Amino acid sequence: MRIGGLWSLILVAGLLMAGSAHAQADNIFARADAYRAERAAACRGGDLDACAQEGQNFWAGVRVPRDLPKAVEFLGRACRGGRLASCAHLGRLHAEAGTPFHQPATASGLFERACAGGEVDGCTAGAKALLNADGRSYRDWPRAESFLRRACDGDDNESCFRLGVVYLNGDGAPRDPTRAGPLLEAACVGGRRDACGWAASVFGSGQHGAADLARAERMMTRGCELGAGDVCYMKVSFLVSGAAGPERVAEGMQLLPRACELNVAAACSDLAVEMAQGQGMPKDEPRARQLANRACRGGDWNGCMVFGLMQAHGVGGSADREGAAAAFRRALELDPARPEPRTALNDFGLE
User: Fold this and answer.
1) End-to-end CA distance of the chain
2) Less Cβ around it within 10 Å: N or C end of the chain?
3) pTM: predicted TM-score of the whole model, two decimal places
4) 114-144 as b/e, with b when 16 or more CB fall inside 10 Å?
5) Cβ contact 160:195 at 8 Å
6) Element at 7 (helix H, strand E)
7) pLDDT, tens digit, for every residue of 207-262?
8) Superfamily for the 134-227 domain
9) Which CATH superfamily includes the segment(s) 42-129?
């Protein structure tokens, strides 16, 4: 066969394959359109699941172009038929600014309907829609409080946390630490790690009533389990201070590496000092030097001073005058009012 003839066959085959691919694509789109029409017909025939799913698809633009009128139609059918989750979805659509369907009053009514029926998502959405621009206080606090309370009762940790913080700080509502404590505790136990430090502070300081150190420690423990470094370090400080008894100081020291692992610079600094001196743990000067460096890079003033001194004296590694000077200058940047960094620079002739 001539080369030209071969190329002709290849070209014809390619065109046939391309035509086949286009035909397959057209077939896929045709099937998708048929399925969409079938689901729309099912919805109009009373299939509320079809209404709910199609409404969400048209609102979010999932597998179809975004079409808000159709989303309103389908979600409305599902909501009127008793699908409370669809009422919450429809409420979000009407709460969305910048669309022809932005109707805050309608959205609030839909959220209320969903929430009253036990749809926690409607409660959380209702409260969120009432947030002020500061992200902390709420318009119409009594209504927002009602939404948050019902969502919290439905085990929504975010709502328990937000309600507790409002009561604790008095952001647009009467301050009430007594009510804040249990709410923050519930959020912490439920897995909201930033609630744990708040709860520990409330119980430890007695804002909830009489100080309850055992309850405060449980919050610290839970926060540490959830990976909240600042709460973990709070427990270290609590135990090392002797507040839980002198027999538990060593337990606090054993927890110090965990707080450092969770990127608490002050914990790494403390750990560096302990390791350099061999107090409460095996002496390890090279590791201590690494930790001091990490603490300094994390913005801890004491870590910078320790790192500078270790480099200046050659502790845990070779002496490094330039590194020591950089560490002392970093400490000076972190706290210009402290005289120690400048004194160290002068003493070691690093100015």
Assistant:
1) 87
2) N
3) 0.79
4) bbeeebbbbbbbbbbbbeeeeeebbeebebb
5) yes
6) helix 3-44
7) 767 789 999 999 999 999 999 999 999 999 999 999 999 999 999 999 999 999 99
8) Tetratricopeptide repeat domain (1.25.40.10)
9) Tetratricopeptide repeat domain (1.25.40.10)
